[in-house]
Write a structure and sequence with these properties.
about 325 residues, 5-stranded mixed β-sheet
């Protein structure tokens, strides 16, 4: 296999995900790319056999550049995934002066808000957490994976500065659409467990009840939706409300219930596009459908048994 592209530089969480995946698939050489778009372009153009991009974090949700890139790519799909535990350390240069700024990828800054508030440092967004560490200025604290301290000769200011212990990020492994059927056929021989499918559904006729119609088909066919995200159709500039639903489905397109749902949507006139089919692995999948503890719902939510005054306040009656 030729190279595996990833969002660089070395030391990023995506780099770690790419290392882990490549070690189990022939130790292909890794190639750092400057942007998510470059990762997709290298796979589409044949410069890299595979690409690795972050797609979803359990704290911050979907990674929008990756989501938009896979929705918009005619040639690249996901054929595997990697799940990483995410921990942030705070680093400074050995010759640092007065510290006035803290730098990380926007998702990294969002996952370390407690540290930012406690230190009172001004936030500076970086292209990646590893880039923040590599380019740390004398007046900056850089937040990133633990490996960055050694890679970029930085001093550890503080360990484990993330707000939520146990956060995880899912990374997609990319291949060309023409190669995907053969890749998935080989994967089916090795993986006897569950599968997950990312699907883009674009309603051609919009209006009240469209989303209900789409989700009802999944319910009636017994196919679980584990997530649903709405993204605008970026090439439609003059039409308000032009959008695509990005669905994550528990199942694979070759499963009969999933095929039946796809048939329902096509007959209803929707436009469909499979964005990826990946084996469902790891602890993340064990609890994805677990009941939610009422103590963990958004603050201010109301539910059964709520007193009348609280119900009126929570629902703005």
């Amino acid at each position: 296999m030729s190279g595996v592209g990833y969002l660089g530089p070395e030391g990023s969480f995506t780099h770690q995900a790419a290392v882990g995946w490549a070690e189990g698939h022939g130790a292909a050489p890794l190639v750092a790319r400057g942007t998510v778009g470059e990762v997709f372009a290298a796979v589409a153009g044949g410069d890299d056999a595979r690409g690795v991009v972050a797609i979803e974090n359990t704290v911050e949700g979907y990674v929008v550049p990756s989501l938009d890139a896979i929705v918009g790519s005619p040639d690249v799909v996901a054929v595997d995934e990697v799940v990483l535990d995410i921990e942030f350390d705070a680093f400074v240069r050995h010759d640092h002066g007065e510290l006035t700024e803290v730098s990380a990828h926007p998702h990294g800054l969002a996952q370390c808000q407690g540290f930012v508030a406690r230190t009172g440092l001004r936030t500076v967004a970086a292209a990646s957490n590893a880039a923040a560490c590599r380019d740390a200025a004398p007046h900056q604290v850089a937040l990133g994976p633990r490996i960055c301290g050694e890679l970029y000769d930085l001093r550890t200011l503080e360990r484990g500065v993330e707000d939520f212990a146990g956060a995880r990020t899912r990374f997609l492994v990319l291949a060309t659409r023409t190669e995907a059927p053969a890749v998935l056929a080989r994967a089916r021989d090795r993986h006897a467990g569950a599968w997950r499918t990312m699907l883009a559904v674009t309603p051609v006729v919009t209006g009240p009840g469209v989303l209900a119609r789409i989700t009802r088909s999944f319910g009636e066919r017994g196919v679980n939706l584990s997530s649903l995200v709405t993204r605008p159709l970026k090439h439609v500039h003059r039409v308000a409300g032009a959008y695509v639903f990005v669905l994550t489905v528990d199942g694979a397109p070759w499963d009969e219930p999933v095929r039946a749902v796809l048939g329902d949507l096509l007959r209803a006139g929707d436009s469909l596009k499979t964005l990826g089919v990946v084996p469902a692995r790891g602890e993340l999948d064990d609890g994805v459908h677990a009941d939610v503890d009422a103590a963990h719902v958004p603050v201010g939510s109301v539910g059964p048994g709520t007193s009348a005054p609280a119900l009126a306040s929570g629902l703005l009656w």
